[in-house]
Each structure stands twice: as C-alpha cells, then as structure tokens.
Amino acid sequence: MTLHEEIRKLQKERNAVILAHNYQLGEVQDIADFTGDSLELARKATDIQADVIVFCGVHFMAETAAILNPGKTVLLPAADAGCPMADMLTGDQLRELKAKHPGAKVLCYVNSTADVKAESDCCVTSANAVAVAQSFAPDQEIIFVPDRHLGSFTAEKLGRTFILWPGYCPTHARLTETHILAARAAHPGAPVLVHPECPKPVRDAADAVLSTGGMCRYVQGRSEPAFIIGTEVGILHRLRRENPDKAFYPLLEQAVCPNMKKITVEKVLWSLRDLQTVITVPEPVASRARRSIEAMLAIH
Ligand code: 13P
Ligand code: SF4
Q1: If the chain, 300 residues long, is cut into consecutive pieces of 10 residues, what is the mean pLDDT of each piece?
Q2: Is the same domain home to 164 and 203?
Q3: 5 CA distance to ligand 2 centroid (A)?
Q4: 154 touches 162 (CB < 8 A)
Q5: pTM for the whole thing?
Q6: CATH number for position 266
Q7: Given the CA of residue 211, which atom of ligand 1 is nearest to it?
Q8: Which one of 69, 97, 181, 215 has the lowest number of neighbouring Cβ atoms within 10 Å?
Q9: Which residues in 96-255 belong to E strands, given as ranges?
Q10: Ligand closest to the CA atom of residue 146
Q11: Domain annotation covers residue 273
Q12: Is 150 in the same domain as 17?
C-alpha cells in the first residue's frame, strides 16, 4: 500500500478530515481535503462533520479549530510546530497593557495564543482585519496585538492610530524593498503581491497587500502572465497548481517558515495512526477565546 493509500484508509477508519494551510509543503497540500488561509480554515473548522480534524499548520491554528469544535479530536501532526509571532505576547502581558488603557477594545490577530484570544474583544485575520476594525466606532481606542505590521496596515487603511504590540513574523521580516526592486527588474510588468505581515516599506513598494487566500483569488481575475509573490514560499505550490498558464516568482526564495515545514506526509500518517498530538484548550480560557473568534466570524 502506498503512503497515500494508507492515509486514505486510516482517514476512513478514524472519520477524519485533513486541513492544510497555504504555507504547508506541496506534498501535504496534495493530500489535504481542504487548503486555505487562516480565515478560510477557521470557517471550515466550524462546518466539519468528521470526528477527527488533522490540522496541518501551526499550533495556534489547531488551537483555534479545537476551540471552535469542543466535541472533536483535533490533531497537530508536529507537536513542536509553533508560531514565533504568537509567542511574542502572553496573556499576562496583554492584561498589563489593558490596565494601562482601560477604555480600549482589543483586536487580536489569530496568530496568537488561546490566552491572548481570551483577553481580547475580537479576533482578526489578515483577510478581514480592516473590515473587523471598521465595525468599531471611529473614536474607539483600539489595542492591536501581536503583529505590529498587520496592526499598522489596518490602522493606515482606516486613517486611524492603534496602540500596537511590537510583535512580528520573522519570516516576513526578511522581505525588503531591495528585493522588490530586484524582482521587478528581473520580471518587468509582473505585479508584486505581498502579505500584510510585511514591514511598511515592503507594503508601500508592492502593487497589492493581500492575505494568502486573497492572493489566490487576485491572480485568477488578472490577465498578466506572471506575478511576484511576497510571502512564505509554500503558497507557490497552490498558485502554480491552480494557474498552470501563469508564472509565479518568489520575492525571496528563503522566505520559509520553518515551523510550517515541520509537517510531512509521514507525520500525517503517524498522527492518524496514533491519534497524536491532540490539541486541547482548558476552560474557562476556551470559552472566552471562542467568544473572540465568534465575534470575528459574525462580522466578516
Ligand atoms: P493567512 O494565510 O491568513 O494570510 O496568514 C498567514 C500566516 O502567516 C499564517 O501564519
Ligand atoms: Fe507565524 Fe510567520 Fe510562520 Fe505565519 S509565517 S506561522 S506568522 S512565523
């Protein structure tokens, strides 16, 4: 039996669904039942009939799926696949920040721990941060955590100022304006798409700032034959598969998230076979974090 056949057999026995983020290895995306961005995956997780969810992504994503599905078994095939940005803010640090700004509402990027979500008023993803922030009154003081880049992008879009936490994504922090100049020279006419986790000079030098799901939709409606992609390189697999007639160039070949790459097809098989590693969130944190995620899903 091939690895794929074994996975399908175990999937049936366990009544399991396999979800994968757009940054996963191509081989993992290819065995997944659904591949998407953080918002698409959070929505998908609310609409699953299976008993087991194998989450191919990083810890906070599996945690979000577990919070939204208290009755299901959520598995993360690589227990050590964390997100350094999510780990840049603890619940205690957020409680201290809130105490300094008692009238502020807290928006937290889903790239955060369950403790941080539990302390927040509403979650956002890179796909809906502007729409969610817009639903708050223009004079409402906003604390935005933990990504200072998505926070400043969102505030700029609305012409507002947020209280920001200095968190960032180490993978997107590697992208620079100089890479954009070099890529434009190498591929004249190709639009440059970057993720809002990129620093401001990179966002300003790009043609569009989009979530990973937004990038997938953007290229489908365009006539250009080539695109420069400024985000984690795993997304190139999906873009190339869905658009075989178009060319995609990474803004930086080394824009790799080591944590996203910890999951392999073998680990998916072992995860299904051994039902490991189960991700759970204790109460009352889970209920409080669920409120923040559901507040987001209700807005956008
Ligand atoms: P999206 O896929 O939601 O755009 O998020 C990117 C990311 O860094 C997830 O960790
Ligand atoms: Fe976290 Fe950045 Fe990796 Fe996304 S790409 S999981 S934000 S470290």
Answers
A1: 96 97 98 95 90 98 95 96 98 98 98 98 97 96 98 98 98 98 98 98 98 97 96 98 98 98 98 98 98 95
A2: no
A3: 31
A4: yes
A5: 0.97
A6: 3.40.50.10800
A7: 4
A8: 181
A9: 105-109, 122-124, 142-145, 163-164, 192-194, 208-209, 226-230, 247-250
A10: 2
A11: yes
A12: no
